[in-house]
Amino acid sequence: MLSAMPFLTDPGFWAAWLRIVLIDLLLAGDNALVIALAVRTLPPREQLWGSVLGTAGAVVLRLIFITIVTLLLSVPLLRLIGGLLLVWIAIKLVRPAAGGADHVRSGTTLRQAIGIIVLADVVMSLDNVIAIAAAARGDLVLVIFGLLLSLPLVVWGSGFLAKLMNRFPLVIWIGGGVLGWVAMTMIADDPVLAKWVAGWPVLAHHIAPDALAAFITLLGWWFARDAARKPQ
């Protein structure tokens, strides 16, 4: 069984998968809020089906988008651009901000609620798509693992995650650091930059990613300390 799927015995595969798990957890919060708002006026049974089917539809579209992004990342300079965008996403994640999904309307029918969830997810999930594609580094098996994982996480795990992040902000800061690490690795892998950093592999693929991860984690701590000092 394992010989037919050699990637299951590859430690690098599972390390990348764990990064995708963390990214899914951290970036699923807004999507979960959209689901809750879209189905809130439906009967209890239809709320469950609306959540499951809406998220499943969003996952299928996300798989298509990530496949496209993964293929595009082979184009010179797009890994650099994607990496810089990931740095911005990481900083946005660790910076305290008010939620932006309060404007999502509720669906009056199951079909309408599913449509709202899918449309909102497409609009809001650019950060998730780029982050998963970068973390998977072109491995579509990892992409599929990450997306299949996101279905139960978004539908059932977001409430627990929100409580965990509110109680332990360090989880958010570390998550931002992981995104920073993925971003710097992505930048170093860009075909245009690869020849320039080939002479410094340790700096490009170990020291620089670790340094950026530590910086963004500390930046999250600094943002939190600064916010605590401001009068409420």
How do the helices and strands line up, and which of them pair or pack?
Layout: H1 11-27, H2 29-38, H3 44-72, H4 78-94, H5 110-124, H6 126-136, H7 140-167, H8 170-188, H9 191-197, H10 201-229
Helix pairs in contact: 1-6, 1-7, 1-8, 2-5, 2-7, 3-5, 3-6, 3-7, 4-6, 4-8, 4-10, 8-10
How confident is the prediction overall: mean pLDDT?
74
Radius of gyration: 19 Å
Which descriptor suits the 3D outline?
globular
Largest sheet: none
Structural commentary:
78% of the residues lie in helices and 0% in strands. With 232 residues, the chain is an all-alpha fold. The protein has one domain (12-229). Residues 98-103 have low confidence and may be disordered.
List keywords for this structure.
232 residues; single chain; globular; mainly alpha
In a nutshell, what does this entry contain?
Helices cover 78% and strands 0% of the residues. It has 10 helices and no strands. It starts with 10 loop residues before the first helix and ends with a helix.
